[in-house]
Structures are given as C-alpha cells and as structure tokens.
Amino acid sequence: MEFKAVQIAEILEGDIVGDPSATVSKLSKIEEGEKGSLTFLSNPKYTPHLYKTKASIVIVNRTFEPTRKLNTTLIKVDDAYQAFTKLLEFYNEYKNQKTGIDKNTIISDSAKLGDHLYLGAFSHIGDNVTIGNHVKIYPNCYIGDNVIIKDNTVLYSGVKVYFDSEIGENCTIHAGTVIGSDGFGFAPTASGAYKTIPQIGNVIVEDNVDIGANTTIDRATLGSTIIRMGVKLDNLVQIAHNVEIGKNTVIASQSGIAGSTKVGENCMIGGQVAVSGHLTIGDNVKISGKSGVAKSIKENSVVRGIPAMDYNTYNKSYVFFRKLPEIVQELRKNTSTKQ
C-alpha cells in the first residue's frame, strides 16, 4: 500500500518541505534508501547520507536545516526517532490486520471465541479455551485445554500453550515459544534412577508482555509460574517452574532463571546470564551478560562476573586477574630469594 507525504505528515503532525504528493510503499535505512522508500534522520553522524539517499521521503527534526540541495522530500517533526517509531507501529499494525478463521483450524465445541479473531491454518484450540477479542493466532499453534487468552494478544506460528495457562491482554508471543511445559522436577531413587515429580501448576502471563522466539516458560510444580505486566523476554530465554518475573523487567537472549527464583521489578538481565534457583533478585537490579548468579541480590544493585559480584568491585578485581601470571611469578621469585 502506498502513502503520500501529506498523509504521513498528518499522522505525525509534521511539516512538509518538498513534494506533498511524494509516495512511499516501504521503509528503509537512510544509507540504503531507494525510490519509493521512507526513512529518517535523528543521529547527526548520518547527515551525509541525507544528501546521497534515494529515499523519497525522510523524517527529520524540526531543527534540521540542509546545507546543500536535497533530492528528497522532508517531513519535519519534533522528534524524528519517536516519529519513525510511531510509523513502524502503524506499519506493523497494518501488516497484521488479519481476521477470519481458516477452515483447517481445529476448534473444540466448548471453546469460547471473541470477536474479530484470526485463527490460522492447522492450529488447535482445545476444550474450554477462552479467547478474547482481536486475538491473532497464526498457523500451526497449539492451545491446550482451559487456556485463557485475553484481548489483542498475538501468537505467531508454532507457539504451544499447555493446559490451564493464562495469557493477558496486548501480549506478543513469537514463533516456537512453549508456555506451560513441565518444570525440571525429578526425585532420585535408591537405585540411582530419577522419578518424575508431576508438575500440576500453571503459567500466568500478565498484560503487555512480549516473549521472543523459542523461549520456554515452565509451569509450576504447584501454584503458578508468573510473568508480570510489561515484562520483555528475548529469544531463547528459559524460565523454570515457580519463577516469578517482576513488572517491567527485561531479559536478554540465552539467559536462564532456575526454579522458584523471584526476580523483582524493573530489572535488566543481560544475555547468557545464569541465575540459580530459590533466590531473590531485588527491584531495579542490573546483571551484566554472561554473569553467574549464585546468591540473592539486593535491590538497586549492579553486578557482573562468575560468581556475580558488585560491578565496580569486579572491574577493580579484573585489573589483578589480568596481571595474575606476573604476580605469581613475582611471588615465586621472592620466595626463592628468601630460601
């Protein structure tokens, strides 16, 4: 679908400098712009690209004044980055305006379906499932018995939601994610073998949660594994049984949170972080990538390392880590001299 500069300016409440009838049908980076594309300039270091770009429309800050001739139409706004983000949201919403139920979808007679749904081909909707309004479930998803999915939530292809799970409003769950699989619960027997401990709890995902592709969230042994409102999980994150992730916390790829650990609100956890079980991570904690957390962390802490320690302490210690061979050599030399 094509949009004219005048339409885009109206959406963004911006001013046009150039051709109001200039049209675009796709988005691009400013350095890769081509005819018919829309891009933006917010970082001054990319300004040279503006004079070379072939993009038909460029969004810029109101304060921008060109120093030479341009071959593109400008739309001036208060904040070019925020304006472009708004357009991305608009474009994404437009792309995903799917509705209807594919004839190859399997739906239990006891399922309760809301209005304006999209149910893709070969998806399975189990017994007593409740699905809200404007929900989109892409092809090849599995929704187990008694699952609740609330309004405006999107499940992309291949998502599996096990029985009794609850997913809130305005959530986005990307392809391949599994919600509600068994927690890692096994009891050793006298013979040395392991016996499975039944995992009979569920998973609760609150409103406005984003979950990346191929992430797994295990159901609780008893009670609930809980992902609180506004949490953002990257691709390939593992959340174990009975974990609780606090409101507005973000966790980067390949991190794992072991069973029964409670993570506070507004935390930031980097990639490949390992957090042991039965710990408490306070509010506003930051954990650097590849850290290993083996004990609870107080609120407002910043930690890194294996085992994780205070960020500044780690940096000071690292100076000595690097010099350790020299230090050992000096110690041996001094020891040898004394003998």
Written overview of the protein:
The chain contains 4 helices and 40 strands. The strands form 6 sheets. A 12-stranded mixed sheet has the order 8-11-14-17-20-25-28-31-34-37-39-40. Strands 9-12-15-18-21-26-29-32-35-38 form a 10-stranded parallel sheet, with no helix packed on it. A 9-stranded parallel sheet has the order 10-13-16-19-24-27-30-33-36, with no helix packed on it. A hairpin with a 4-residue loop joins strand 39 and strand 40 (309-310). The N and C termini lie far apart (85 Å).
Secondary-structure blueprint:
Elements: E1 3-4, H1 5-12, E2 15-17, E3 23-24, E4 26-27, E5 37-41, H2 47-50, E6 57-61, E7 73-77, H3 80-95, E8 100-101, E9 106-107, E10 112-113, E11 118-119, E12 124-125, E13 130-131, E14 136-137, E15 142-143, E16 148-149, E17 154-155, E18 160-161, E19 166-167, E20 172-173, E21 178-181, E22 186-188, E23 194-196, E24 202-205, E25 210-211, E26 216-218, E27 224-227, E28 232-233, E29 238-239, E30 244-245, E31 250-251, E32 256-257, E33 262-263, E34 268-269, E35 274-275, E36 280-281, E37 286-287, E38 292-293, E39 302-304, E40 309-310, H4 311-338
